[in-house]
Amino acid sequence: MLFLLRMLMMAVHFVLAGILGLLLGICRPFNPDNSRLCARLYALPALCILHLTLRAEVGSMLAQRQACVIVANHQSNYDLYVIGRVVPPRTVSIGKKSLKWIPLFGQLYWLAGNVLIDRGNARRAKQAMLTTTEVLRHQDTSIWVFPEGTRNAGEELLPFKKGAFQMAVAAGVPIVPVCVSNYARHLRLNRWDGGKILIRSLPAIPTAGLTQADLPMLIADCRSRMQRCIAALDAELAAA
């Protein structure tokens, strides 16, 4: 019963947040800080409705004084509410072009300045990647990427795709890993206490002086750091 009530409340919240976010986007279209504000519109009420306890330790991400590429693990659709709680100022994300057609949310996502990529068209996808490099270099705007490329509720990270790392190296900006504890399989939405989630950002990984030839080493290093951190977060929750 509690689960059904929560899902009803979440449906209403999703529509209301979409309307408010769309109005914000219309008032100041493509402002790079729209993403953070819209993320909070979705996240803060949702965390209360779902009664999720979230602890965030993201000082290394918030301390960044220059644009960066933020990489995080992607577990479920609930990431919109979980990760939305910690999106920093002037940060946009990369999403599939098809997102634009989701009523309210898609138009909000586009007007928030996020980058939409047509993955079925290699030429357009490459052009979008070049655009993101210019954003990082000249617009003081960071980019949030899920390097696994898809949702993954398993304990082991999937292989990382190159795109985020290519952008960071091309723009010469640091990579900031953000790790979220494995929560997707442990949500208890039919209970009052919906679950506990930990988020932790790691020290920035510099890319200055690196070339595309360094990508395999860079990707392996970042994935290894994140895997160890996620395991540590899970252990902390298990011991609590």
Give the topology, please:
Layout: H1 2-27, H2 34-50, E1 52-57, H3 59-62, E2 69-72, H4 79-82, E3 91-96, H5 105-111, E4 115-117, H6 122-138, E5 142-145, H7 163-171, E6 175-180, E7 195-201, H8 215-239
Parallel strand pairs: 1-7, 2-5, 2-6, 3-4, 3-5
Antiparallel strand pairs: 6-7
Helix pairs in contact: 1-2, 1-5, 6-7
Enzyme class: transferase
Keywords: Acyltransferase, Lipid biosynthesis, Lipid metabolism, Phospholipid biosynthesis, Phospholipid metabolism, Transferase
InterPro entries: AGP_acyltrans, Plipid/glycerol_acylTrfase
Can you tell me the residue ranges where pLDDT is under 50 for at least 5 consecutive residues?
A: none
Rounded to an integer in angstroms, the radius of gyration calculated over CA atoms is 18 Å
Mean of residue pLDDT values: 89
The counted number of beta strands is 7
Any idea what the shape is?
globular
Helix content: 40-55%
- What is the quaternary state of this protein? single chain
CATH fold descriptor: Glycerol-3-phosphate (1)-acyltransferase
The class by helix and strand makeup works out as: alpha/beta
